[in-house]
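User: Quick sanity check before I run a bigger batch. Here is a single chain. Can you write out its predicted 3D structure?
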Amino acid sequence: MKFEALMLRGLFVACLLVCGLILGAMVIGTPNAVRLAANGSAGQLVVAAHAHCMLPPDGVVCPRIGT
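Assistant: Done. Predicted structure follows.
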């Protein structure tokens, strides 16, 4: 009985440790999108992307058939 209680206590501590590490990573970590927005380079990327793939004035996109 003592062995089972020790195993359950160890499993509980391990689960708490893993959950704490995950929570810490979520609270402390900064996603790449936030870093890009903070540096101001995300707006430049969006403008550059729109310059390369503009929609026609009517907004209808027809697929191109390769020959």
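The helical segments are 2-28, 32-39, 41-52.

User: Great, the batch can go ahead then.
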